[in-house]
Amino acid sequence: MNAVAQPSALQVRAQDFLARYEGLKDRLPGDAAVRTAAAAAFARTGLPGPREEAWRYTSLRPLAEIGFREPLGPLADCAALLAGLPAIEGPRLVFVDGRFRADLSAVPSHVTVRTGTPAFGTLARLDEKLVTLNTMLAEDGATIDVAEGIDAGTLLLISLGSGSHSHPVAFHPRHALHLSPGASMTLIEIAMGAGTYLHNPVTSITVDAAATLTHLRIQNESPDAFHLSTVYADVGARGTYDSFALTLGGRLARMEVHAHLHGEKAAAHLNAAQLLGGNQHADFTTVVAHDAPATASRQTVKNVLTGHARGVFQGKIEVARVAQKTDGYQMNQALLLSPDAEIDSKPQLEIYADDVKCSHGATVGDLDPDQLFYLRSRGVAQAEARSILVRAFLSEALDPIVHEEARAAMETAITAWWERQSV
Amino acid sequence: MLEIKGLTATVDGKEILKGIDLVVPQGEVHAIMGPNGSGKSTLSYVLSGREGYEVTGGSATYDGQDLLALAPEERAAAGLFLAFQYPVELPGVGNANFMRTALNAVRRARGEPELDAVQFLKRARAELRRLSMADDMLKRNVNVGFSGGEKKRNEVLQMAILRPKLAILDETDSGLDIDALKIVAEGVNALRGPDFTAVVITHYQRLLDHIVPDRVHVLADGRIIRSGGPELAHALEAGGYASMIAEAA
């Protein structure tokens, strides 16, 4: 009865991360005070566990079973991974195992970029455990600034997990992106890799008045990888944060996006598609805070699940008293192509203003047998008919993507994913 | 030649087709008329291979090939086409892509070369003009937002593009105004010839004023109770189904 409780796997893993921090802290770049505070917080809170409401559907246990170390050693060769990158033209910032690689990058001309140190900025957020972990152990990151009124075009932010280490590695890049008033940019983020690793990036985004950031993400990590990313997007008056995230990779993945609409008529589009098979688990969690009048948010999240895959969507919309005329829309749709696949959908609306338009919905189902028969009656073989209907299901999310090369890259990744499934 | 012998079928365990015997020789157009619930749509679905329709007896062959043993797409490759009574909407699927995919699937199965986008569009536009359809019909999603008449015309457009050897038109006239009906009928008539065999299923005689059939069959309670020439449709229109069914009983 009075036996000492064994520490849980999550606690052991948290201790392990703390120990790595102790060993590394004198060598890590950036603001030491920020790190010290994060380490103290992490020592108290540890990793998120299943009793927390925000982590009810996503367990980090599989992650806790693996001992990660920091990626030490010489520059990893990643020719094979580089060859697998989609063909998208333009300047790029390439990080390998969380470290900036000038030799693989092409720095853009219209923006200011600083690397070599984590971009902590003013974002402390000790309430988010994974962000705290990132703050404690971040080694590198990109600080990107776009000046007033500049259209910065396209920038690629590429993360490669090299898989070239003798042990699983964890990396925690910390990026910050600032668009000055009236500026615009398309940021295309691609995460790929090989082997077992934890990629835990945190990106803080500031979209000033009348600025527009288009943020397209392709998460195509190694099948054994863990991808836990957090994005904070603060959007000013008439500014737009327009994002689409495609999740195909990783063994366990969570993308968390916090959008704060703090200026009048600010807008956020947090669209996503999760295509999962085998034993994959992926979670798309959003928190949209409407904190100014006439702000708008749109979320269309599509899930295609095969095998024993599990998809999670948690979408929270908070409308402050001041945020009258808010327009919030959220839709989560899932195609379950196998009886063993599972989707968990949790919408949450907290509305304190009285003149708002907020709606949410969710659909779950298999492919429509009438649609399948219609295609087959026209001569289209069953497998192709299924593929066509899956594409059609995703088209609502993909078609609005204006950047042709990025959309083509996503289509290609989806085709490759589909060909790997036996459905 | 389509040859149906003693065909029986159930839906949800209920017998709907109770022994259909029907021969449609090559190059002929036959009409099947019958009241609601007589089994007209069930016959069309059984012939095209829709799931949920269980054949419990009899046979259906086309040119000696056992239709019932084939998957729906294999029937299409063999030359069968069903014009749906209720065409299905495919949101997110462009009409042009849909038709090209279908055409190329059928051409592949027949060992014919596939058409590229340009070749396909040329052919599709020619058929569109013949059916008095607007070009933008190809750009829209399949049947999404189409009026009832547009959906039926889209079925006939698909038929014109796929050029089947055996077409089953399931109440293609329902929901059509007289102008649309004429266009649809012209679409079917344009395909008529020695290599085109068709079964036109309809509730009303008026379609048969425009697609004049070689033979008319009356289906009631899962059986064909009368067969005759085009004049049979007029007799039905005058006397109604009830008296004919009573007479046959």
From TrEMBL, chain A:
<dbReference type="InterPro" id="IPR011542">
    <property type="entry name" value="SUF_FeS_clus_asmbl_SufD"/>
</dbReference>
<dbReference type="InterPro" id="IPR037284">
    <property type="entry name" value="SUF_FeS_clus_asmbl_SufBD_sf"/>
</dbReference>
<protein>
    <submittedName>
        <fullName>Fe-S cluster assembly protein SufD</fullName>
    </submittedName>
</protein>
<feature type="domain" description="SUF system FeS cluster assembly SufBD core">
    <location>
        <begin position="169"/>
        <end position="393"/>
    </location>
</feature>
<dbReference type="InterPro" id="IPR055346">
    <property type="entry name" value="Fe-S_cluster_assembly_SufBD"/>
</dbReference>
<dbReference type="InterPro" id="IPR000825">
    <property type="entry name" value="SUF_FeS_clus_asmbl_SufBD_core"/>
</dbReference>
<dbReference type="GO" id="GO:0016226">
    <property type="term" value="P:iron-sulfur cluster assembly"/>
</dbReference>
<dbReference type="Pfam" id="PF01458">
    <property type="entry name" value="SUFBD_core"/>
</dbReference>
Automatic annotation (TrEMBL), chain B:
<keyword id="KW-0547">Nucleotide-binding</keyword>
<comment type="similarity">
    <text>Belongs to the ABC transporter superfamily. Ycf16 family.</text>
</comment>
<dbReference type="InterPro" id="IPR010230">
    <property type="entry name" value="FeS-cluster_ATPase_SufC"/>
</dbReference>
<feature type="domain" description="ABC transporter">
    <location>
        <begin position="2"/>
        <end position="246"/>
    </location>
</feature>
<dbReference type="GO" id="GO:0005524">
    <property type="term" value="F:ATP binding"/>
</dbReference>
<dbReference type="GO" id="GO:0016887">
    <property type="term" value="F:ATP hydrolysis activity"/>
</dbReference>
<dbReference type="InterPro" id="IPR017871">
    <property type="entry name" value="ABC_transporter-like_CS"/>
</dbReference>
<dbReference type="Pfam" id="PF00005">
    <property type="entry name" value="ABC_tran"/>
</dbReference>
<dbReference type="InterPro" id="IPR003593">
    <property type="entry name" value="AAA+_ATPase"/>
</dbReference>
<dbReference type="InterPro" id="IPR027417">
    <property type="entry name" value="P-loop_NTPase"/>
</dbReference>
<protein>
    <submittedName>
        <fullName>Fe-S cluster assembly ATPase SufC</fullName>
    </submittedName>
</protein>
<keyword id="KW-0067">ATP-binding</keyword>
<dbReference type="InterPro" id="IPR003439">
    <property type="entry name" value="ABC_transporter-like_ATP-bd"/>
</dbReference>
